Amino acid sequence: MPKYYCDYCDAYLTHDSPSVRKTHNGGRKHKENVKNYYQKFLEECQQKMLEAQAKNFQKRVPGAVVQTAPFPIQPMRFYCIVRNPPY
C-alpha cells in the first residue's frame, strides 16, 4: 500500500488510512504549514502587483497632465483570487 505524502509538511505518513490523514490534517504543525504556504503565496502575489504598478508608473510621461473626471472616481483595486485555505 502506498504511503500518503503531505505537500505542506513535506512528509510521508506511515499508513494511508482516512483516520491517519484526519489526525495529521488536524495537527498543529500541519495547520501552521498550510497557513505559512498561503501567506507566502499572498505575499508573492502582492509583490507582483506592486512591481506592475511601479512599472506602469515609470512608463508615464514626466510632466503629463492627468485627466480628471467631473466626479470623483474610486481607485481600482486588484485582488488575488484565492480560495479559503483547506483547513
Summary keywords:
87 residues, mainly alpha, Double Stranded RNA Binding Domain, two-stranded antiparallel sheet, 2 strands, 7% strand
Description:
With 87 residues, this protein is mostly helical. It has a domain at 4-59: 2-Layer Sandwich (Double Stranded RNA Binding Domain). Helix content is 46%, strand content 7%. It is built from two helices and two strands, in the order ββαα. The chain has helices spanning 18-25, 28-59, and strands spanning 4-6, 11-13. It has a two-stranded antiparallel ribbon with strand order 1-2. The radius of gyration is 22 Å and the shape is rod-shaped. It starts with a strand and ends in a 28-residue tail after the last helix. The mean pLDDT is 81. GO terms for molecular function: pre-mRNA 5'-splice site binding; zinc ion binding. It holds the Pfam family zf-U1. It is found in: Nucleus. It comes from Strongyloides venezuelensis.
